[in-house]
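Task: complex structure prediction.
Instruction: return structure tokens for all chains below.
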Amino acid sequence: MNKPTNKNFITNIVDNDNNTNKFGGRVNTRFPPEPNGYLHIGHAKSIFLNFEIAKTYGGKCNLRFDDTNPEKENIEYIDSIKNDIEWLGYKWDSIHYASDYFEQLYTYAQKLIENNYAYVDSSSSEIIKEERGTLTEPGIKSKDRERPSDESLKIFEQMKQGKFNDGEYVLRLKIDMSSPNINMRDPVIYRIKKVEHHRTKNDWCIYPMYDFTHCISDAIENITHSLCTLEFEDHRDLYEWVIEKINHENQPQQIEFARLALEHNLMSKRKLSELVEKNYVESWDDPRMPTLSGMKRRGYTPNAIKDFCNRIGITKKNSAIEMGVLENTIREELNLTAKRVMGVLDPIKVTLVNYPKDETETIKATYNPNDINSGERSISISRNIFIDKNDFMEFPEKKYFRLAPGKEVRLRHAFNITCEKIIKDNSGEILELECTYDPISRDMSKGNKVKGMIHWVDANNCIDAQINVYDRLFSDSDPTSVDDINENSLMVKKSSKLEKNIDLNNNDERYQFERVGYFIKDSKSSNEKISYNKIVSLKDSWKKINKKGI
Ligand code: ATP
Ligand code: MG
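Output:
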């Protein structure tokens, strides 16, 4: 189903490297998540890129957990990340953890100190920040910059032994305090953190920083093309400096591409975790979330997500993608694959007064007009049916072609009905509609020509369900704060009625509820409370509702 990776500026670089034999024809990539949250659709872009490039060139793609920040990381995130990658259909060649390299990283740091490329600094983090300078002013050399190597080595060892408290000392690279690139102004590469690590437990109380860890991990794993997002462009000098100074035989090439931003979403694990913590959403896999687990629960397929990644392509220019692009990929797929059934989300009871009591007839209809192999379904109809409240208007506007008093409308797959009477309760609430049906119109060519067609379910033969209808998580196309969440992003329809042809035992089956949209059983649905999630509408719901009323 997926097309091969499109050519882009990165595949051009790889082609060129292969032509010049830069890496001996090898192509090794990696996906390096930090296990501090669940993966989101932005990560899918990176996963797709790294794994597809490896596949295209017969290379390898590793999974590497960048686990150098013990406070925020945990095993739940590691497991979820592995699950999500597998769900997308990718298999890593090998799995690694930056924490597996702690010993090697420590040895490299010692070497750098010995060679006068690093020093231990006792300046506070505030002073270090102050002395770093700005884009227009050079930095100031630290008072400890000229500390002799053997002294730094000794203190570094004592840092490792736990002799000092957090913040008392750091290890810094000795590069250039007046470099125009602030990342090169003696960056900190180790800090003391007396925190237990989820894998190395209490073996370490000093932890290496990302910039130091990442490039060395790439080199150790023989990565050729280290693909990362644009914000690391300014870190590339540092990346290359470290690789050169540790004199590693493998010299991976860092290449930056634009992050994915999706309109109406926030796309950082920190913000997504805030949504969960503040209970704005149910969990990381809330179907409104742009997390892969949320999208899975919402009913997105791995193919649709990969198709989306393929469509948006890879560039060096940051821009936000419209939600419509994402929604179209799943809509197009489901149009071809989803079985059709009928479902009434907001039911109103209709009695067909001239339909014989205790009789039921069966109507044949196709499961999917786009798939000749989808087979036929049998839909029952009887004297009592449900239609959707939206399909009835007591005082119809002009050009309203659906049901209204005295108006005739077609029941999809069945026959025409005319509304004769509205039955209300004391408060004026509509309880039921009484209609007559026209038996002749079973043959569409024989009944009156009517403009409106509505869906329905047999009240005597249907499934009671709750339907979760979702809207954009943020109304604003470019939200900044989680507090701006769209309060109407979840609408729960508690007493919906569904056609009996739905297979309640198949949790993966996606259905089109005719005229309404695409739905999947919620993974948290139970026998007591059957619930279905709306995946996507039939048309872009943010465009104007179809005026014809069909
Ligand atoms: P977040 O801000 O969501 O935590 P991150 O970049 O810190 O993102 P990592 O776990 O470090 O998250 O990311 C793993 C990989 O995924 C990195 O290579 C990163 O560049 C890439 N990635 C993260 N977010 C996006 C995105 N929105 N678009 C494309 N790639 C992304
Ligand atoms: Mg990160």
